[in-house]
Design goal:
Helix content: 55-70%
Number of helices: 22
Bound molecules: ligand C2E, calcium ion
Oligomer: single chain
Structural class: alpha/beta
Radius of gyration: 52 Å
């Protein structure tokens, strides 16, 4: 993955991460503030009700005791004055009133004792004692008076009754005064509390309002953030991460929309499919950083050339498309295609390096070449394919293309039918452990049983399928067939890991992991028995998306193998971050390693490098015992090639497997010598 291909998304992700963090921090702080305010409001409510309640209760109690004391004080005063009256006028009625008043003194003191606290009870006890003394004294005083002992009576009055009643009066009156004062204080406290609560209530109410406002603002903020997030996800799903241009999805949407509005107005929609020629060479020579930058500049240049309302999209890899919203004729669309092609011919400057690219453009027009987005896209693809294959620069789709175009294009209609009729078959080529000679797996390689042409090999139709969107259904069929075979072998008690090849386009298909998962499920196959082979070039056409997809596949438990390793451009650092478990050394090195020491060196370096990264090393294209010996010496793990067997139909593969002698001795592999002698350098297949 280059810095460039990651640059924009990484920056965007970082910026969005920062915003997320900011929003999260703010939300966190706001949350704490809300909790504090909420606690304060609740505490206030509890305090104000409790404090006023307690204060009111204390005020009531204080005034009750104060009343009790006041009644007692009044009774004591009345008692004394009645006692004096009786001395002046000793009538029976006065005596009776005195007795009643005396019992009033007792009962009011009893009320004080009931309502008061410990201090009051002590006081009542003392006063009651003195009250009894007083009553006893006046009883004796009255008796002395009755008998005419005036001096005795006066002595009792002065020496006993007076001091007792004075003491009682003092004690009760002062307690009454104190209690009255306390009652007033408690009342004052209560009034003060009520005033405070009254003053604070609007403040608390305001705080509550603010709280509601804060909550509303936070929820609003979250909603806004969600909307932004949703808009960003929607934008990302319809735009290319590298160039920021619309992607295939958005192009198809816009195309469908334009086609719908075509009919009433009578205008026509043109579609140009642009593929850069020899872009792979630039990528391989200068590295992906330069490739990425070049693609970005190509996008910018195309966008600058088209009219307002037209749309430039990047479909993946080095493929672009231009949607022309209003063109009069195929001729006009082709003329615009030519202008765009010329615009791309001006040299690009990428970090001090001058890069020249050429492009092949396929042209289609609505009405003329199709009425729906799928047909138009497919035909633009074919037209572009012809432009490239015949070096035409620009080519407008021609319905008679099958007669004029190369044989490969002629195959297209047949291939579609082959997919419908199930004419594709899988051959299996064994993968052998170099040390033990044991069979460790098989690679599934697709062949087409053509009704007239016989067996057609993948090199002839896979590129065609890749260019016409047929690779999706083709891969789905291959996967289903391979999984069904894995299941058959497992059921027969001879389980075997099978590798299936994926194309670059498959790695951009976000539905692939789901498809693989459901196929595994449908066939009841353990994910560990399936391996997927992808070339480094396929990963590098759109590294971010491809690696995300590979991650999803590995999470299903499927092993990923890097095919044709060494032929493309992958750095050690990149390899380290890829979710792969196997490297397959490209057969161009393996097939020549015994003659070409530099290729032998490359093979050896790849083996060392792969082992350092903990990967399994597979050499493909092993044709000779010499190559196998050299690979064994380098420590390579697995070999695949004509030396063991060509790719075989299932029955032949099973027979080969059954015939295979068990490994005799270490170091000498059971090799089918007959196969070795029949090998020629040119693939005879
Ligand atoms: P590949 O994945 O590199 O497959 C290995 C190719 O090398 C096969 O060619 C195989 O027959 C050939 N081969 C194996 N051992 C030797 C050897 O010792 N010497 C030589 N000279 N060749 C050997 P095949 O079957 O013609 O496949 C060609 C390519 O087509 C494959 O290359 C793969 O990229 C692609 N392909 C095959 N099947 C599928 C498929 O189901 N899906 C996709 N997307 N691509 C496929
Ligand atoms: Ca392969
Ligand atoms: Ca290969």
């Amino acid at each position: 993955m280059t810095a460039n291909s990651l640059g924009r998304p990484a920056r965007a992700a970082r910026a969005s991460g920062d915003t997320d963090l900011l929003v999260a921090t703010r939300s966190g702080r706001a949350g704490v503030c809300i909790v504090v305010v909420l606690l304060a409001v609740s505490a206030f409510a509890v305090w104000s009700s409790q404090a006023t309640g307690i204060a009111a209760e204390r005020a009531v109690r204080a005034s009750t005791i104060s009343d009790d004391y006041a009644r007692a004080a009044m009774a004591v005063i009345e008692e004394e004055s009645l006692a004096r009256l009786y001395q002046l006028e000793p009538a029976h009625a006065v005596r009776e009133r005195l007795d009643t008043t005396a019992s009033n003194v007792f009962s009011s003191l009893a009320e004080v004792r009931r309502d008061g606290d410990a201090g009051d009870r002590r006081l009542v006890k003392r006063v009651l004692g003195r009250q009894r003394d007083y009553l006893d004294a006046i009883d004796r005083q009255f008796a002395a008076s009755d008998r005419g002992y005036t001096a005795t009576a006066a002595a009792i009055d002065l020496g006993e009754a007076d001091p007792a009643i004075d003491e009682i009066q003092d004690a009760v009156a002062s307690a009454a005064r104190d209690q009255h004062k306390t009652a007033l204080l408690e009342l004052e406290h209560l009034r003060h509390l009520e005033a405070t609560a009254r003053r604070l209530t609007p403040v608390v109410f305001l705080a509550g309002l603010l709280l509601v406002a804060a909550l509303a603002s936070i929820t609003g903020g979250h909603r806004r953030q969600l909307n932004v997030e949703r808009a960003r996800t929607l934008h990302d799903s319809r735009h290319d991460t590298l160039t920021g241009l619309p992607n295939r999805t958005l192009l198809a949407e816009r195309l469908t929309h334009e086609l719908r509005s075509d009919a009433p107005v009578g205008s026509r929609t043109g579609l140009l499919l642009i593929d850069l020629d020899r872009f792979k060479e630039i990528n391989d020579t200068f590295g992906h950083h330069y490739g990425d930058e070049l693609l970005t500049q190509v996008g910018t240049r195309l966008a600058a050339e088209v009219c307002d309302g037209d749309l430039v999209a990047r479909l993946g890899g080095d493929e672009f498309a231009v949607l022309l919203t209003d063109v009069g004729s195929v001729h006009e669309a082709s003329r615009i295609a030519g202008t765009l092609r010329t615009a791309l011919e001006t040299t690009f400057h990428v970090e001090g390096v001058d890069l020249d690219v050429e492009a092949s453009v396929g042209v289609v027009l609505s009405g003329e070449h199709g009425d729906d987005a799928t047909t138009l896209l497919q035909r633009a693809d074919i037209a572009m394919y012809v432009a490239k294959a015949q070096n035409l620069g620009v080519f407008a789709y021609d319905p008679a293309i099958d007669e004029h175009s190369p044989a490969k294009v002629a195959l297209l209609g047949d291939l579609r039918r082959a997919l419908d009729h199930g004419d594709l078959v899988l051959h299996y080529q064994p993968k052998v452990d170099i040390i033990t000679g044991g069979l460790v797996g098989a690679e599934a390689l697709v062949r087409w049983k053509h009704p007239e042409r016989g067996l057609v090999f993948p090199d002839e139709f896979i590129p065609l399928a890749e260019h016409t969107g047929l690779i999706g259904p083709l891969t789905a069929q291959v996967l289903a067939a391979a999984l069904s075979q894995i299941r058959t072998w497992s059921d027969a008690g001879t389980p075997l890991t099978v590798s299936v090849n994926l194309s670059a386009r498959n790695l951009l298909d976000e539905a692939l992991p789901g498809l693989v998962a459901s196929l595994l499920d449908a066939h009841g196959v353990a994910p560990g028995l399936l391996e997927l082979e992808v070339t480094e070039t396929a990963i590098m056409t759109e590294p971010v998306r491809a690696l995300r997809l590979l991650d999803q596949l590995t999470r299903l438990g499927i092993r990923i193998s890097i095919d044709d390793f060494g032929a493309g451009y992958t750095s050690l650092g990149q390899l380290k971050t890829m979710p792969v478990s196997e490297l397959k050394i490209d057969r161009s090195f393996v097939m020549t390693m015994t003659e070409d020491p530099s290729n032998a060196l490359i093979v050896r370096s790849i083996v060392d490098l792969g082992h350092n990264l903990g990967l399994t090393l597979v050499a493909e294209g092993v044709e000779t015992a010499g190559a196998l010996d050299a690979l064994a010496a380098f420590g390579c793990d697995v070999a695949q090639g004509y030396l063991f067997s060509r790719p075989l139909p299932v029955a032949a593969f099973d027979a080969w497997r059954a015939d295979r002698r068990p490994p005799a001795t270490a170091g000498r592999l059971p090799v089918q010598r007959a196969a070795v002698t029949s090998i020629t350098k040119n693939r005879t297949r």
